[in-house]
Model the fold of this input.
Amino acid sequence: MTEQRVTHFRVTATVHARAQEVFEVLTDPTRHKDFDGSGMLRGAVTTELLTEVGQVFEMNMDALPRGQYITENHVRTLVPNREVSWMTGMGGRDPVGYWWGYEITPIDEHSCEVAFDYDWAVITSAKYLHLFPRISEADMHESLGHLQALFAS
Done:
């Protein structure tokens, strides 16, 4: 029997805020550290809000075995108040194909469901495959927990 390779994580949580408020946090690179559950994010290099597909924003990172580095994140989807995702590259190179993203579904005027996706399905090279997944589902749940806490009152 062939073992099926996991190539995607998706976690969800209810956030007690309007979809627009959550979207505003998710599209502000300076806020990403506030809800990072991986412990790798050190802060934004780019301070402009994410407004369009193709936009690139940079983040300071720190993770083993690499140490400190800067990622170049290319916005792949952006639907106001509903969805944002990006593919990560480094050193001026095109992204290698893995992506991160958030989908926001309103529940009512004061809450929404947020789905956090991490997909590395296109990574098939043995040279890179051993690096994935870079974070765990538990890290992703931690991120959504931090996001919920930003709106708790």
Observations:
- The longest helix spans residues 137-150.
- The first strand starts at residue 8 and ends at 15.
- The helical segments are 19-26, 126-129, 137-150.
- The two ends are 51 Å apart (CA to CA).
